[in-house]
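Shipment paperwork, digital attachment
Item: protein structure file
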Amino acid sequence: MFLTKLILGKEDRVKKIVEDKRTREKKDKRKKLDHFHHRLTMDGDTRTEDAMQDLRSLRDAFRQLNVIAPDLNQAMIDEIQERAEELFAQCVSSLEKSLQLWKTADSLASDVAKKPILEQREKLVSEVVGTVEHMSRTLAAVQSITSKPEGDARLQQLRSELDQSLEVAKKVEQRVDSMLNGGSLQNLTQLNKK
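Attachment content:
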């Protein structure tokens, strides 16, 4: 009996330690996002702040799909949630790069030097805003599915659409990465023409 209590007590303590660690990690992530969200005010572009707020709200809503649509295919819901999480991370990364581009442009004196950087930033911000809108439509579509047979086909389509959005977001980010990591002004101008 003593040994059983000792072992079970140890398991409970381990579970509590793991839960406490997860709670701290979530809190740290939330703090970092709050700080980043605040930094987005620097660029004077409310679209970036609004996009960040919308992304956070949409991510929370996607995490609640199990509750919102309990009768739908769980494996499909899990995949949609995973894609939404990936899009969230991709958009946050793009917003970080847009802020970096804004800071670079802000430090330049001439409009000629600023123009290609601000054009690239505009592409990033527009892509994020478009992705937020797409995520919102996807969430609304999932919430409107009422029956399992109809739902499976529609969920498959929505997952494919999220996959396509993720690919586009990755391509945009790759272009910006290549520009930020040693790309010349000429390369930037060529990227803007694509």
